[in-house]
Amino acid sequence: MVSKEDITGEIDQRLLSRLKMENNVYKVNAGGVYYRDLNVLLKSLSNNGAEKTEVHNVYGQRYIGTGLENMEIEIYGTPGNDLGAFMNGSRLVVYGNVQDGCGNTMNEGEIIVHGRAGDIAGYSMRGGKIFIRDDVGYRVGIHMKEYREKKPYLIVGGTAQDFLGEYMAGGILVVLGLSLKDGEYHKARFVGTGMHGGIIYVRGKIEHLGKEVELAEVEEHDMSIIENLVKEFCNYFGFEVDKIMQKKFTKIAPVSHRPYGKLYAY
User: Fold this and answer.
1) All structural domains of the chain
2) Given pLDDT bands bounded at 50, 70 and 90, which one contains residue 24?
């Protein structure tokens, strides 16, 4: 059990006054706290063995969860850019929207967003899972990659803006389109531009693809992957698996693993 005495040497008394314990959970009041100070406090809690922390009144503080290992953080409010960047196994649950760069280069862990996400969510992520309940911005999944035994998964409940999966090199990106009305289609343009690895699954109709990708048939093993991820998504957000799986999915795959090979001399 972490006590205030355990972390006194790492942070000042002003920050300690923002910390309290209720029902074996550490609670932090982040209202008006500078992002760097907040992250020092969270890092100190993690270093001293705290397993679960709630952070309330979050309003744009950046880098929450960056580099943390093995701590669950519930975030109430709107965290700023690079939530969970370089994360190594923690679990972040956000009750609100997130800004840009969510999951930037994360290695392991989970980020669960009960709201929307801004641009470049999942940027260069190489492991772990991100679940976003609602819509996302531009260039989501850009540079996603697989790294050794790691494989990243990014599941979007709503729809996405342009350049979805740009330069994607590995992993699985799923867009469910639950925010679309009947008859609407995904309006993202240049989907998969520069993509040379990984797979994008889109529920519903999508029309504007980058020249580096093509539509492919969704096979039985694809449906198994999709259904397992949809089950996890529904477990977090309360949707019905069967209802989601009734609609047709489209598979987007790269045409080549070296789309720019002819641009170089060797």
Assistant:
1) 51-263 (2.160.20.60)
2) confident
